[in-house]
Amino acid sequence: MKKFKFSILLSLCLLLFGAQSAFAADPYESPANDTPSTAWILTQGTAYNFFAGSGDMDWYKFTTAKTATQNVFFAPPDTQSYTVAVYDAYQLDNSNGQSISPLAIKTVTSGPGTYTNLNWSATAGKSYYVLVYGGPNITSTYQLVITAQ
Questions:
Q1: What range does the record give for the signal peptide (predicted)?
Q2: Is residue 7 classed as helix, strand or coil in its secondary structure?
Q3: Number of neighbours of residue 96 by Cβ within 10 angstroms
Q4: Which residue in 65, 67, 74 sits closest to 10, CA to CA?
Q5: By 3-state DSSP, what share of the chain in percent is helix, strand and coil, each rounded to 5?
Q6: Closest C-alpha among 105, 115, 130 to residue 42
Q7: What's the N-to-C CA distance of the chain in angstroms?
Q8: Burial of residue 119 (number of CB atoms within 10 Å: 0-12, 13-18, 19+)
């Protein structure tokens, strides 16, 4: 029942806000978002479609509006392997090159039309990075949606 309610909520968000194909497609990203310092800023509650180029690492950044469980929903374009990870922006920005563990990470091979959910407890006003890599697929887009419960 919980999965059913989520599916309805996600479908409603996509219907109301529409899935946006934001920015330029790989390998023609302009500007590139291959590092945390060049991450594209995303808005919670909006569905985005992006391409996964060969060897490409896509970084996104967002700031939470409230303290709550945050969700990143990822829908792959195919059954290749994709990795999605979430990092605390402050920790990553101040790591001085040291390895930082992600707050949430999943490898996804489920195929198109299915969403994988990563969630973690977030604090209002904090920023987070989302990293997506894998594939590649430059003919179909993956979808990314960030929401709070």
A1: 1-24
A2: helix
A3: 5
A4: 74
A5: 15, 45, 40
A6: 130
A7: 16
A8: middle
Please state, in angstroms and rounded to a whole number, the distance separating the CA atoms of residues 143 and 132.
Answer: 11
H/E element, 108: strand 104-108
Helices and strands (H, E) in the chain, number of each type: 2, 10
Q: Is the dihedral of CA 30, 118, 128, 146 positive or negative?
A: positive
Rg of the chain on CA atoms, in Å: 15
DSSP β-bridge partners for residue 8: none
Per the structure block, which two tokens stand in for 111? 């195929």
46 neighbors 17 (Cβ within 8 angstroms) = yes
* pLDDT tens profile 69-117: 999 999 999 999 999 999 999 999 999 888 999 999 999 999 888 999 9
For residue range 34-73, list pLDDT tens digits in order.
Answer: 999 999 999 999 999 988 887 889 999 999 999 999 999 9
Q: What is the pTM of this model?
A: 0.80
Q: Write the class of the CATH domain 2-148.
A: mainly beta
